[in-house]
Each structure stands twice: as C-alpha cells, then as structure tokens.
Amino acid sequence: MEKYRVVIIGGGPAGLAAALESFKNLKGDKRVLIIERDRFLGGILNQCIHPGFGLHYFNEELTGPEYAHRFVEQVLENRIGYLTETHVIDITSEKEIVAVNKKGLKRIKADSIVLAMGCRERTRGAIITPGTRPAGIFTAGQAQRFINIEGYRIGKKAVIVGSGDIGLIMARRLTLEGIEVKAVVEIMPYSTGLRRNIVQCLDDFGIPLLLSHKLVKIHGKYRVEGVTIAKVDSQLQEIPSTERFIECDTVLFSVGLIPENELSKKAGIVLDMRTGGPVVDNTFSTSQKGIFACGNVLHVHDLVDNVTKEAQTAGRYAAIYSQHPELFEDNIHINVVAKDGIRYVVPQKLNKNFVQPFVLRFRVDNLYKDAVVTISNAGKILIEVKKSILTPGEMQSIEISQKILSQLDFSSDIVVSLQNI
Amino acid sequence: MIYDAVVIGAGVVGMSILRELTRYDLKICCVEKMEDVAEGASKANSGIVHAGYDPIEGTKKARFNIEGNNMFSEICKQLDVEYKMIGSLVVAFDDHEINILEELLQRGKRNGVKGLEIKDREWLFKNEPNLSKELKAALFAPYSGITNPYKLTIALFENAIQNGAEVIFGFEVCRIEKDDDFFIVRSADGRVVRTRILINCAGAYADEISKMVGAKNFKIYPRRGQYYILDKPEKLPVNRVIFQVPTEKGKGILVAPTVDGNVLVGPNSEYVDSKDDTSTTQEGLNEIFEKARKVLPSLSKRDVITIFSGIRATPDTHDFIIGEDENIENFINVAGIESPGLTSSVAIGRYVAEIVSCKLNAKRNPNFNPYREDIKRFSELSDEEREKMIKLNPSFGNIVCRCELVSEYEIIEAIKRGARTVDGIKRRTRAGMGRCQGGFCLPRVMDILSRELKIDKTQITKFGKNSYILTEKRWED
C-alpha cells in the first residue's frame, strides 16, 4: 500500500489550496497527494470563464481558469503529487483510500486526509418541477460546460430558473452566445445573487428578473417548447390565474448546490443537516480524527477567495495532525451554536488545543434589514456587528480575534445569533 | 423484406413475443417507431411482479398473471435481469378495508396464488417498523416481487437479436394492406415490410393498428400514472412492496424498493386525452405524496431525485385482448396490456409464439440459446474482480457516472449492444440515473457516444427524433 502524509481528495480550488498549505507545513517527509476525478486540476473553476474571481485574495479580478492556474502552477513548482482521471471509491475511518483509474485500483494509506470534493447542483427533479421530460433541460453547470469548454450552443431561447450568482452569470453568458434569455425566474421575493451581478448580467442586457415567480410546468415532447410560470404568494404558493406561458427551447436550472458527501458517509463522518457537510472544529477536523474538510463539500460558498482561505487552514492542520495527532483527541471541544435567525455556522466547534484566531462563517435564514449579529459566550456578548441588510444568499463572516478568545469561558458554548434593531 | 412474422412495437410484450418466436425456425422482425426498445409503458411503470390476487378469476389477466409469475424467476435468471421476490403487502386502515383484504385473499386462492395470508398489526410493525401505526392489518403475498421493466425489455431484445430476430427502429406504421398471402406494412418514411403473420403490440396505439388492418374494433384509453423516485437511502424504509387497498381505479399508490436500491412512490390514476401525455402535474404529484405519507409517515420530499409518468393502455373490454382476430386471418392482437402486463408479458410471449408456430407449422430452432449476459457493472464487482477487469479493459477503470459508479467500459458495451441515445445509455447502464441526474456525466456520455458512433455531438439525441441536446457547434478545439 502506498503511504502519504496528507492525501487531498478533489483538485478544485479547495483541494489545491489545502495541498499547498499542507506541503508548506510538513517537515521532513513532505509526501502530499491530490486525487482528482476530472482530466485537469482546477475543478469547476475551469468552466467559469467570467471575471470576478480573486478580488479579495489577489486584489485583482481574474477569470476562473486564471484563478485556478495560479494554484496549479505552485503545485507543479513544488512537485506535489497528483492523479487526474482517478476516482476515489472508498475512504475508511482508518484513513485508507481506494481509488480507481485506467491503470487499476490503488490503495493508499494517509496520515491525514483533506476532503475537498465540492458540491453538485440541485436538479429539476429535486425541486419537483412538473411537466414533460424533453431534451433542452440543463443545470447551469452543464450548460456552462457545453458552452465554455466544449464550444456548443445549447438552444435559441432560454428561461433560467433561479437568480443566484450562477443563474445570473449564465443569463449573460447565454446572451453573449446569441441565445435569447426570455426571463430569469426567482421564487423568492429577492435575488440571492450579488447586486453587482444583477446589474452587469441582467440590467445591462435588458433581461427581465421575475421575482416571486415559479416555474410551474415544462412543455414539449422531444425538445422543450415552452414553460408555464406563475406568481407566488408569501408562502411561495402559486397564485391562481397568474399563469403565463413563455415560449422557449431551453430551460436552465440554477436552484442550489448540495455538498457531495457520499464518501464522507462511507468514512462514518458526522454531517450537519443544515450545511449538508461535515461537522468540523476550527481546525476543520471532522468527527473522524485525521480527516479534514474544506470548500464546498463542507458548506456552499459564494466566493472562491473564501474557499481558498478556509482550505489553507484545513491543509495546515492536516499537516499538523500528521505530526501531532495527540492534539486532536476527544473531549477538547466547545460548541459553536447558531440561534435566532442564523441558519448555520461553520465551524461548529472550537478545539481547546488550538485557541487561535479564526473566522466564523454563517448564513441567515431569511431576509433581514437593520439587524445585529451577536456572538456571545456564558451570557456575555463578545461581539456585536450591525448590518443594514442580510440575505440567506450571502455568506457572512466574523473574525474571532485573539482578544476575544482570551475572554472565553471554556465551560460554555459560543452562540451566534441575530436580533432586529 | 418478407417475414414469417412481424411484431409491431418494441415494448416488453413485443420483445417477449419476439424472443419466444426465435425458439422456432422463422424469419421474424419487430418494427418500432422510436429509436430504442422500451420507449413507452415499459420504461415507466412500477416494475412489480404481481402475485395474482387482483384480477377477476377466469380473465386473461388472471391466467397470464399467474403463468407469468411462475415463469418470471427462470426467465430473469436466463436473461441476467434483476428480480427480487421480496413479497408484497396490501395494508388496511379499518374494518371496511380489512374486508377488502379478505376478498382479495379469496380471489387469490381461486386464481391459484400460493402463500397468501392476512397478517395482524403485531406482525406488520415487527416486519415493517416504519409503516403508520394507524394500520390494522395487511394481506401478505410472498411471491410478489420487483424487477426492472426496461432492463427486462432490453434483455429480451438482446437475446432475440442473438437468436436471429431483427428490430427495425424509427419505423412508424402508417398504413397496412393485405394481399392473399401477406400483410404489407408501410412506415411514415416509406419503408415497407411484408409478413405472413402480423402481431400488434403497439401499446396505447394498438386500437389504431387494429383499425388500420380492418380488424377487431376496440378502444384503448390512455390512463396516466405519475411517480417519484427517491435517492438510495442508507437503509430502505420498507422491505416489501406496500400497496394500499385497491379501488375501481386500480391498485392504488404503492411504496416500494426498486431493484437498484432506490425507493419508488406512485402511481395515481387519471384518464388523459393524449396517448403521449407523459407529463407530471402538481395536483397528481401532491395527491400521491399525501396518500403515500399516510402509510409511510417518514417519507420526505428532500429525498426526491426525479419524477415521471407512464401511460397504461386501458382497453374498453376490461381484459387483455390476446389472440388471432375473428375476421382477419393471421392478424394477432396483443392489446390492452395494462397491469399486470409486466408480470404477464413473459407468459403472453410464449402463448403467442405457440399460436404463430402452429399456424406456420414451424420447426424448432436448433440453435436457440436462452441465455444472455448483462453488461459487467463496476458497482457490483469486488475489488479483485474490478482489478481483473481493468487489466483486460482499461476503460473499466474510468468512472464516468460518479453517482452510480458507471465506468466507460459499460457505456461502450451498451453502445455495442444497440444504445444510440443518451436515454438508451441511461437505461442500460444507469449513467445519469443517480442523484445528480446526469449533471456531471451527460457531457462525458455524449463524448463517448460521439466517438463510438462516429457522429457529431450535435447529432446526439436524448431519445431519438428531435430530442437534440446541443444545437450548434460554435468553434473547433
């Protein structure tokens, strides 16, 4: 069996950053391996050819492939090992990995593992959209791959369901490819996409954004022939007699992402129902010692810059684990709890052996205006942050500094909550 | 081309007849309007092998159900098709429904169904702990089972082809004439086949074919059933097929494991105007979910991965129409094959093939081979077997569909065996049938189809005709 200090599963932005940081922090034996399913390193960034990546991390605006390339170059320079077109089919709690590629089955033993498998898109079926099942129905990611990587046109007239950043960006992308985007349909009364993207991707091209609208039926026998949409009330229920037919041959679904944790389950890792990813502490250690998680497999991010930073932390601690596993023993955690308007918080725990500054990332459960996010512990408010607007689509983060950490009562939970002003 | 017998329609009934005909030394073929087998009711039904307590005694439904159930296990073994005899339960909430269970039990006994028993609450909750605690009793049928309806159709097709039959795809019958010896069957695109015996297995369209020949006048009413497929759970919520008590509309909504490890919920029953109306509706889907949840309260919409509907070919005769027409010699109708049609199909195949062989005085085919092997599946092999397979075929180590662990080898093999469309690959290999529904593997499957069939990707369809996925190539790599 091959042995590595740290094995990274997934060669997207999270995996690349975690691998580099593990490599930097290892002493002596520096064997790090990245295992990637696709033909290239870089993950989904390779098909995100629009700009807007790296504003926070590099202070400049890059495309997805450019952003990925900067990390891939470092991986190559440092001669970090990687396998492409290689599929991990099993991970055990003993940190044994079975991977498969055209050469055969590979069994690998790792001191520590970083899970960075990313996420998948919710589908038309998952949101139970009635109608027929013709050709011409795509997820936004599929469309992006066909258009940006393979160079095909996928239709002539399209309707996009979902107004998160991916839906908005694909509305612009389709328009630039000569596909008429009839509408972007959003069931919520607000878009979960960035304001900047609504302006640059819809307004600039005159594409209508239909808020509080639902796609209620897909029509067409062989190829999509149109969709019926309707207005919804505040309970998201269809309002009778508001139905409207839109003729189109293409429907794109951009209705949310789901962390891909099938392998995590095989390894017996405890998952958080709300994030869909593993429960982790501030070292990004999962419930299985020596297995870490970061990026979209942990929780779905808005910005790749945040994925990179999170993955660096995970990679660093994975390297530390391989040298000092005793620092990650049981019963050394206090909980970080999401309450009152906070849907989830990551990390969900703090490791008492690593009381070092870290970032809490969280999402709210609804649209809030003029609210205060507080972080409290043992009945004492440690941090208060005023926000004029908070939406579920925008990930929030608050840094827990050394000063705050020094005030912590370690017998009590850290509570993140939201109050209206 | 001149044939001894031609079957119209490549569903499970048509393919069963075709395969059984290859036991004889005959020149036979099937004409199918779509590009693949199992494109109608055979791809969209519950996949249940019924025990036989439902049909009224003395009907063709009762006869072929019982015969089919008895034959099923053997045929699935020969054809390497999944079949699990997991048993079924019809569950009852009150005394009125318990009376219906009693009726079903008696009818089943008269039909010759073995092992039927009414079970009490204690048994039910011990054996199906997730079912509603409101339930009072259940009829247990140990010889009910589950199979994969389109895989059975594909297996029958492959075995028929192995044994010398032909299937002509894209052949939409538009006119049928008869001279002294032959039926002249014409397709919309101008192709013609001539045959001594014509067998009508056109599903929901069987009445129209019968009318074209000037034969028996009956009507097929399309009756739609909608379904949910749930993601593979770590532990199945039910161990058996769970039916609710039947109504005049049919066997009611069931919750059942599939042979692939998913959970199936449905169908409802609604007459629709069009024989092609396989759309799902909000009302239908809501109805199914509410009813199913009464029996299995833990059911969650979060687990849904896809929804679909199928058409039952409901005849106005209230029974299967099987046999040579009274007025048109050598024309055999096999029509109105609604539930329990899948179970019955294997028995109907044998019965019709016997009629044909008698009429033509056919000799046995000495080379008939009843065995067919399924494609080797990465997901089903041990690591040692996988390693062996990869050594022989490196493409076995290239995983294309990550949700269902389908290798490139399986897709190439499916193409070799006749898959021409994305859905054809899906039904043969499960690529695209998992939780991401082809989100990742669709472009890869298309790459392989394009390479193996030597066609441009813009020519690839989802399921034939105009179901093109890509519309134009914008640039070359």
Task: Characterise this structure.
Chain A: This is FAD-dependent pyridine nucleotide-disulfide oxidoreductase. Chain A: Residues 4-314 form the FAD/NAD(P)-binding domain. Chain A: Pfam families: Pyr_redox_2. Chain A: InterPro entries: FAD/NAD-bd_sf (IPR036188), FAD/NAD-binding_dom (IPR023753), Metab_Enz_Cyan_OpOx_G3PDH (IPR051691). Chain A: One of its GO terms (molecular function) is oxidoreductase activity. Chain B: Residues 399-450 form the BFD-like [2Fe-2S]-binding domain. The complex is a heterodimer of chains A (421) and B (477). Chain A is an alpha/beta fold. In chain A, helix 1 (13-25) runs parallel beside helix 2 (64-77). In chain A, the strands form seven sheets. In chain A, strands 1, 2, 5, 6, 7, 8 and 20 form a seven-stranded mixed β-sheet that branches. A five-stranded parallel β-sheet of chain A has the order 10-18-12-13-14. Chain A is globular and about 65 Å long. The longest helix of chain A is centred in the last third of the chain and has 20 residues, at 304-323. Chain A folds into three domains: 1-121 and 257-331, FAD/NAD(P)-binding domain (3-Layer(bba) Sandwich); 123-255, FAD/NAD(P)-binding domain (3-Layer(bba) Sandwich), CATH 3.50.50.60; 332-421, Immunoglobulin-like, CATH 2.60.40. The N and C termini of chain A lie far apart (59 Å). In chain A, strand 25 and strand 26 form a beta hairpin. Chain A has helices at residues 13-25, 64-77, 140-149, 165-176, 195-202, 262-266, 304-323, 402-406; strands at 2-9, 32-35, 51-53, 62-63, 81-83, 87-91, 96-101, 104-115, 119-121, 137-139, 152-153, 157-161, 180-185, 209-210, 213-219, 226-231, 244-247, 250-253, 257-259, 291-293, 333-338, 342-346, 349-351, 358-364, 368-377, 380-390, 396-400, 414-420. Chain B is α+β, with helices and mostly antiparallel strands. Chain B has three domains: 2-42 and 150-219 and 317-360, 3-Layer(bba) Sandwich (FAD/NAD(P)-binding domain), CATH 3.50.50.60; 85-144 and 221-315, D-Amino Acid Oxidase, subunit A, domain 2 (D-Amino Acid Oxidase, Chain A, domain 2, 2-Layer Sandwich), CATH 3.30.9.10; 383-459, Arc Repressor Mutant, subunit A (Orthogonal Bundle). Chain B is built from twelve helices and 23 strands. In chain B, the strands form five sheets. In chain B, strands 1, 2, 9, 10, 11, 12, 19 and 20 form an eight-stranded mixed β-sheet that branches. In chain B, strands 13, 15, 16, 17 and 18 form a five-stranded antiparallel β-sheet that branches. In chain B, strands 6-7-5-14 form a four-stranded mixed β-sheet. In chain B, strand 1, helix 1 (12-21) and strand 2 form a beta-alpha-beta unit. In chain B, helix 1 runs parallel beside helix 8 and helix 2 crosses helix 8. The mean pLDDT of chain B is 96. At the A-B interface, strand 7, helix 3, strand 11 and strand 15 of A face helix 7, strand 18, helix 9 and strand 23 of B. Strand 11 of chain A pairs antiparallel with strand 23 (472-473) of chain B.
